[in-house]
């Protein structure tokens, strides 16, 4: 008689343990750049089919600086509204304490990714985010226009300036009234830190803060680089460039109104998309360098990762979701659709990627030699250090104060910040 309830209890226990699969609702937050959200949704649809879970995308503005501010608010409030954060490569040290350690859960796949990226997302031995794509910038140029005027692809900033001027002047004289020579990211935000690090470094002006912590930015080569850029505003670059982020630059470029553009690889797929006016008319090259002896091009290292919030109510499902999006198969899918650079070395030899997004294998070396921003050095103070830097740069290129005065002031401010400990 006692056997029946025991059997029933056993059956119920088996049912509970084995399923039916309990569906969970997850949310992932992501900035809106290019076709990134559309492709993320396609990836999530596949995840939903496979897992039975549901995932909402919380879409926020494209500026990484705005995103960081918003992430801090959510995390400071201990919000469980967001399970998975899409995080910029520079934010790991500042967000680490509020993110789940993924080391154990990803030990089967972490080794597929470039070790330098895994290292950048590891803080005090905890892997706090899994990479989904990496970033290294390109000089986009209009092949058709350079050919038309017999111009070469520039390898120095001076050549870029001269060619931009020449092509722009001739095109305008021929009635192409809206064309500009060069667009980039001149707004006062993290993107300007990326652009300005490239100008400064490629001109022999150092890394702003050196890996040993020395504040090196107040030097004549750095000042000369910023003076050069100031000379571009309103001449080869539209005055509005001082408010451009990635998407504004791409807007001008993709409508055919710029000879050159500095941007990340995502603009490659979009520029070649079906209705793009510049489809098939452009190519990419490494960014130019200064003209000093030993000057080499510099490319700032970017990239995006996925992290699980410590406040998530479903951390295990969230980790599975992160692993799914970061997987080799989904990275291939993303790369084919967006020309984002994968973080899995094997994909650089993939024949489909090489055929459909040739920038990817071509950009492997540029990415491997890209310059990290000083976030591993300034650590928890990186955001503040970067904001002091982009402010000094923005002031200089918009004509508020000389480069040398602004850099001397920046040095003093960074020294004070460092004195408070970073
Ligand atoms: C890109 C990079 C990111 C960088 C940002 C600046 O999204 O991947 O690392 O911080 O641009 O705007």
UniProtKB/TrEMBL annotation:
Transcription regulation recorded as keyword: no
InterPro entries: Bact_solute-bd_prot1 (IPR050490), SBP (IPR006059)
Cellular localization per UniProt: Periplasm
Predominant place of localization: periplasm
Protein's UniProt keywords contain Signal: yes
Keyword annotations: Periplasm, Signal, Transport
Signal peptide: 1-23
Domain of life: Bacteria
Similarity annotation: Belongs to the bacterial solute-binding protein 1 family.
Name of the featured protein: ABC transporter substrate-binding protein
Organism taxonomic ancestry: Bacteria, Pseudomonadati, Pseudomonadota, Alphaproteobacteria, Hyphomicrobiales
